[in-house]
Design a protein that fits this description.
Layout: H1 13-27, E1 37-38, E2 54-55, H2 57-62, H3 68-77, H4 86-98, H5 102-116, H6 120-136, H7 140-156, H8 160-176, H9 180-192, H10 199-211, H11 215-226, H12 234-246, H13 250-262, H14 269-276, H15 280-285, H16 296-302, H17 305-315, H18 319-323, E3 324-326, E4 330-334, H19 340-360, E5 368-372, H20 386-397, E6 403-404, E7 411-415, H21 416-423
Parallel strand pairs: 4-5
Antiparallel strand pairs: 1-2, 3-4, 5-7, 6-7
PPR repeats: 163-197, 198-232
Keywords: Repeat
Domain Smr: 333-417
Length: 424
């Protein structure tokens, strides 16, 4: 599923803990010296003089071996700010089950059910969270167990909310577990029960089939979406494109891009990412920073067949207009959210667009030109931004006046007039 958010609000300790718990699965448990941190009191996290509950090195050293996750959770619950949350318990249960610690997982489930008592909605949500957590870890044992319980709960409930929420989690979970046919059957079961499947359920099944290369089934579900009046949107289209791309079906991607245009569906950054990640010629060129083309014209000269046609469709879209700003004080290009191929093509488009604006004489020359590429905080190797490296190479090769901003290392800056002289 595609999820976006621009909130810059500080994460709560609970949210931070949830992220830590999920990362522990990749760490394989906590060993001595692997983790040592302080957790700021949520009342005023910015104050350094405030007493802060700390998970010490010694405490972390105790969280070793097969009991690591549960002992870590126990330590966290002792913090003054800790507030019990069934969603966190569900995440931990999934981690324990994935490691084969079924008894420990069952104990936590029993404790949670006891705490929730007879509150049907809260119990249903907890089991929805269990299904979702197990599916994200591809844990068949835990998923099947939680799924069976939730399915039974659904049939025993008279609440429309509980039924809808349960179907949503089961359909999403089955697709995560690469079982889209079962999820597809659940959509039909929803209809039989008088429930209306939402766009979320349809998208889950579309992508579930698509990931496995079952394109006929994928397109049948897309058609089903149109029948009950659920419009195909950019998000769903990007899932279709991503599915085709994962199986190198470039011709099918081209057909779908043209369908999007005929339906007046706007392309997005995700559209660029899905398409260009599948263009092997471009991705191979970007591995050799000293050789890739530095203009749209040069790029068109080395692309052939479907790749050339795909790039043509992208360049004719309005995505560039959405990520660039032109104002008297500043002209800005924001590359956030773009994969390497997308950032490369957008930069080439931007150079041409800037040159046209400067040559037209209709626009005021901005005081400053900025390219925002980020500093690598979210890259797979922290602190190393592939996009920033690409921008740097392009600026050097093209002898651009733009340099890394001393105040913000995630940006390249230059005076507007210097950029005009360079491009024109």
């Amino acid at each position: 599923m595609e999820k976006w958010g621009n909130s810059k609000a500080m994460l709560s300790p609970i949210t931070s803990y949830a992220q830590m718990m999920l990362s522990l699965n990749q760490m394989g448990g906590i060993g001595s010296g692997q983790l040592s941190f302080s957790i700021a009191s949520p009342s005023n996290p910015m104050r350094s003089d405030q007493t802060r509950p700390t998970l010490s090195h010694q405490a972390c050293s105790q969280c070793q071996g097969r009991q690591g996750h549960k002992q870590f959770y126990s330590k966290i619950t002792e913090a003054s700010w800790f507030e019990w949350n069934p969603k966190l318990v569900a995440a931990l249960v999934a981690l324990l089950d994935k490691q084969g610690q079924h008894n420990e997982a069952e104990v936590l489930i029993s404790e949670t059910i006891s705490k929730l008592g007879s509150r049907e909605r809260e119990l249903a949500l907890f089991h929805c969270q269990l299904v979702e957590s197990h599916s994200k870890l591809s844990s068949k044992h835990g998923f099947d167990s939680s799924y069976s319980y939730l399915y039974q709960l659904l049939h025993n409930s008279s609440s429309v909310y509980v039924k809808n929420r349960a179907f949503e989690s089961m359909i999403s979970g089955l697709c995560e577990m690469d079982r889209p046919r079962e999820a597809d059957n659940l959509i039909e079961e929803m209809r039989v029960k008088g429930l209306k499947p939402s766009v979320f359920e349809f998208r889950s099944v579309v992508y579930g089939y698509g990931r496995l290369g079952l394109f006929e089934d994928m397109l049948k579900v897309v058609e089903q979406m149109e029948n009950p009046g659920i419009a195909i949107d950019t998000i769903c289209s990007n899932m279709v494109l991503s599915s085709y791309g994962a199986h190198s079906e470039l011709a099918a991607m081209l057909v779908w891009l043209r369908k999007m245009k005929s339906l007046s569906l706007p392309f997005s950054i995700r559209t660029y990412n899905s398409v260009l990640n599948s263009c092997l010629t471009i991705m191979a060129m970007l591995q050799e920073p000293k050789d890739f083309p530095c203009s749209i014209e040069e790029l068109n000269g080395v692309l052939n067949g479907d790749e050339a046609l795909l790039v043509k469709e992208l360049v004719e879209s309005t995505v560039l207009d959405e990520v660039m700003v032109w104002e008297p004080l500043e002209a800005k290009l924001d590359l956030h959210g773009m994969h390497l191929g997308s950032a490369y093509l957008i930069l080439l488009e931007w150079f041409e667009a800037m040159r046209c604006r400067f040559n037209s004489g209709k626009d005021v020359i901005p005081a400053e030109v900025v390219v925002i590429c980020g500093s690598g905080k979210h890259s797979s190797v922290r602190g190393e931004s592939p996009v920033k490296g690409l921008v740097k190479q392009m600026m050097l090769r093209m002898e651009s006046p733009m340099r890394i901003d001393r105040k913000n290392v995630g940006c390249f800056v230059a005076k507007g007039r210097a950029v005009k002289d360079w491009l024109c």
